[in-house]
Design brief:
The protein is of the alpha+beta class. The chain has a domain of 99 residues. It is built from nine helices and eleven strands.
Length: 302
């Protein structure tokens, strides 16, 4: 048996899920498989596994700890939904939700009032940092500190032993994880949170309409209602040749361009993780290359 095969089989035993989530296979790959020879990716870390069998199909630096940026918001969504909140309750964006670390822009001015459901949609689809911050700040009695503690507790419960959170947005580079840990999180979110599946798989989020007053020179003012729509930060959710059941992107300079997805390839349900790509186009190319590779892999076995 080759050294590469032994290494990859050893990796699978380290990556076993806890009882709450599907386990990875103890024999993840054929002994002849050498990923470095067959597929080169720009992303620094990656993983693909078959959800039905737990078989690891591809892994690159899967145990490397790295900042994960807005991938964090998937854990934020899970912890938020664990509290069984009234989704119709309205919460306001406050100064406490303004990004003072990265000074990122926002669709939500201070004072914006939205339902919790709208905030969840904005956090997952548009990756809106103030929405994620507002959910983290208002969900638990202990505020944001208690919420972050619950995020870390949830990570431990899922066996994500190389993951640590310090905020609900992912703006802080001290939010770190590994491709292997994030594969566990995506798999669990897909299997246990239908609300997240519904939100995080859509290409757009329609919030309704916004009232605006239009005024042209020498004309009367005219009131119009304009549709308000936000695009998913993962463009692949709008591509007809992708069947995506859950998705979240992430980017800060320290994390590079990241994406996690549940998707269907060659009639198989798989989880795909790509971390620290140099730019958005490389992230998309890596996803396409991995999909093509997985299709080829399954076609060879049928």
């Amino acid at each position: 048996m080759s050294r590469v095969a032994l290494l990859m089989i050893g990796l699978a035993s380290v990556l076993a899920f806890p009882v709450q989530a599907r386990e990875f296979s103890a024999h993840p790959i054929p002994v002849s498989y050498t990923p470095q020879d067959e597929l080169r990716l720009s992303s620094m870390a990656s993983m693909v596994f078959d959800q039905n069998t737990g078989q690891i199909l591809f892994a690159k630096n899967a145990e490397m700890e790295t900042p994960i940026a807005s991938i964090t918001k998937l854990m934020t969504a899970m912890v938020f939904l664990d509290q069984h909140p009234d989704m119709s309750d309205r919460i306001k964006v406050t100064e406490a939700d303004v990004d003072r670390l990265k000074h990122s822009s926002s669709h939500l001015p201070v004072g914006t009032s939205l339902t919790r459901k709208q905030m969840l949609n904005m956090a997952l689809v548009a990756s809106e940092n103030r929405a994620a911050s507002a959910l983290g700040r208002t969900t638990l009695e202990g505020g944001k500190a208690a919420f972050v503690a619950a995020m870390n507790q949830k990570a431990r419960a899922l066996g994500m032993m190389h993951t640590h959170f310090v905020d609900p947005t992912g703006l802080n580079p001290e939010n770190v994880s590994t491709a292997a840990d994030l594969a566990k999180m995506v798999n669990y979110a897909y299997e246990h949170y239908p609300e997240i599946r519904k939100v995080a798989s859509q290409g757009y989020y329609d919030m309704g309409t916004r009232r605006v007053v239009l005024k042209k020179r020498h004309h009367r003012r005219h009131v119009a209602y304009i549709p308000v729509q936000y695009r998913n930060t993962n463009v692949l959710t709008r591509e007809h040749n992708w069947d995506i059941g859950l998705s979240k992107t992430g980017f800060i300079n320290e994390a590079g361009h990241c994406v996690v997805m549940q998707t269907r390839i060659a009639e198989r349900d798989v989880v795909m993780v790509l971390l620290d790509a140099p730019n958005n186009w490389d992230r998309l190319r890596d996803a396409d290359h991995l999909r093509d590779w997985v299709e080829s892999y399954f076609n060879k076995r049928t």
